[in-house]
Amino acid sequence: MSRGHGTVQRAILDYVATIGDEEILMSKLTAAVFGTDSPTESQRVSVRRAVRQLSQAGLIVTGTAHGWTNAFNNEARYYWRVSSRGRMQEVPITEHYVTRKPTPEEAKRREAASRAAAKRLAAIERRIG
Questions:
Q1: Alpha helices, DSSP H only, in 2-103?
Q2: Are 66 and 76 in contact (CB under 8 A)?
Q3: pLDDT value for 25
Q4: With 80 as the cut, is the pLDDT of residue 13 above it?
């Protein structure tokens, strides 16, 4: 029988509450939760597990960033691999991120903004087509 959120889950919820609407990469979240610059594999796994459980409970929102930008030199992050035809292929690095769940008021505002943008796009398409 569960006795509430574990230590890592509580640390994640506390940290996500302090960053506001900002999205934080899983690697940075792991470093912040454990207070180290180079977390171990077991620490990374425990944060991934805790994030998955919190996301399934609807307490946080997760997503994936493909080819995210490096903050230091503003270059997209890719790696190279050899394709099945023997050619070099550029592949974007995939990183998962976490953010807090929006409040009901924020969700309504985002939905209204999305509907307004869809209406503007439909109007532009009617003018073009």
A1: 7-19, 26-34, 41-56
A2: no
A3: 83
A4: yes
125 CB contacts (<8 Å, ≥6 apart)?
Answer: none
Domain ranges of the chain: 7-128
Distance between CA 125 and CA 129 in Å, rounded? 6
Distance of CA 16 to the CA centre of its chain: 11
102 in Cβ contact with 68 (< 8 Å): no
Question: Which of 94, 92, 20, 6 has the alpha carbon at shortest distance from 57?
Answer: 6
With the C-alpha atoms ordered 31, 35, 38, 41, is the resulting torsion angle positive or negative? negative
The CATH number of domain 7-128, selected from 3.40.50.300, 2.60.40.10, 1.10.10.10, 1.25.40.10: 1.10.10.10
Average pLDDT over residues 52-65: 85
